[in-house]
Design a protein that fits this description.
The protein is an alpha/beta fold and 332 residues long. The chain has eleven helices and ten strands.
């Protein structure tokens, strides 16, 4: 009898972590910032508050950031460091937030300036799919820099993020991205044929899935993983992660369906999603594609968020997408 009780206790102790992982796994995956999102215009002057409905009846919030006109020579000059608010950048951190990024000069980038869309002209746009933390205000420096390149930008929050109703899940985030894209392409300023998807980390899996359903003009994935199961096994090696996952985000299985120019950006010392995971996803995708790895950068390194290195890689890639910025067709 005593031996049986001991075995039951041991079994219960061994099962407890598995049960907890099953029950609370989404709390380990999704980290919405609890605070409310500040007004769009207080962070990005000229930005517009937007709301849109998902197919399952949720109403989500976002910011539409219009493309900025370029001054003389601005299209091919150095990219300003978004660590500091700048009159031409048009970004100011939310009250109480530290300025993201780090000090330093922007580095020169390749390519000539694109024609920036003006009033009455449909222009290119970027849909930004966030990672698993924070809210859209944290992506303001990226949006401001893209707007300076001549892109309209839609920042949005998934269900459960940024004051939105609902609870995040893989299928839920996919539905949110579809609804955000519908909001973006129906705007009169936006050319639906020239929309780029930008996904970061977990959002890279969201953007990639959307790209297989509704191909964009180009796809940018920052710190993507091949599958969530692989990342889970890395961080929880003693648990049967593959058997327990509800949200799988198996991006590598979808990558060969891509039919669009692809840029994969990764940090060489990423401890959350190692560069090898991003390389495996990159290898699974077909041409045209480009891989850029910043040696020494960790997952949340400022240079990977909206720093000069990332912006230079974005410009180098995007100016090579035929017709995206109005330039003559070229090689990606």
């Amino acid at each position: 009898m005593r031996a049986g009780i001991i075995l039951l206790v041991v079994a219960a102790l061994l099962a407890t972590p598995v049960v907890l992982l099953w029950a609370f796994q989404r709390r380990l995956l999704y980290f919405p910032t609890p605070r409310t999102v500040p007004p769009a215009a207080s962070v990005l002057p000229g930005a517009e508050e937007v709301t849109f409905a998902t197919t399952d009846g949720l109403r989500l919030g976002g910011w539409f950031v219009p493309a900025h006109g370029a001054g003389p020579g601005e299209g091919s000059g150095a990219v300003d460091n978004p660590a500091h608010p700048h009159p031409r950048l048009g970004y100011a951190p939310p009250p109480g937030d530290p300025a993201p990024g780090r000090a330093g000069e922007g580095r020169p980038v390749e390519g000539s300036g694109a024609a920036h869309p003006g009033r009455g002209v449909r222009g290119p746009a970027v849909l930004v799919c966030n990672g698993n933390g924070g809210n859209r205000s944290m992506r303001a420096p990226l949006a401001a820099a893209l707007a300076r390149m001549g892109f309209h930008v839609l920042l949005f929050d998934y269900r459960g993020y940024g004051g939105n109703p609902g609870h995040p899940s893989e299928d839920g985030l996919a539905a949110d991205a579809r609804a955000a894209l519908d909001q973006l392409v129906t705007r009169p300023e936006v050319d639906p044929a020239r929309v780029v998807y930008f996904g970061e980390s977990l959002g890279a899996a969201v953007a990639l899935r959307l790209a297989t359903e509704r191909p964009p003009a180009a796809l940018v994935l920052r710190s993507p993983f091949a599958s969530l199961a692989e990342v889970g096994r890395l961080h929880y090696p003693l648990l049967p992660v593959s058997l327990l996952l509800r949200d799988r985000y198996d991006s590598a299985a979808l990558a060969d369906r891509l039919a669009t120019p692809l840029l994969v950006v990764a940090g060489g010392r990423d401890q959350i999603i190692p560069a090898g995971h991003s390389r495996r996803l990159f290898a699974a995708a077909s041409q045209p594609k480009r891989l850029a790895v910043l040696n020494g950068a960790d997952h949340n390194d400022p240079d990977l968020l909206a720093g000069p290195w990332l912006l230079a890689e974005l410009r180098r890639f995007l100016v090579g997408v035929p017709g995206l910025l109005g330039q003559p067709p070229g090689e990606v």
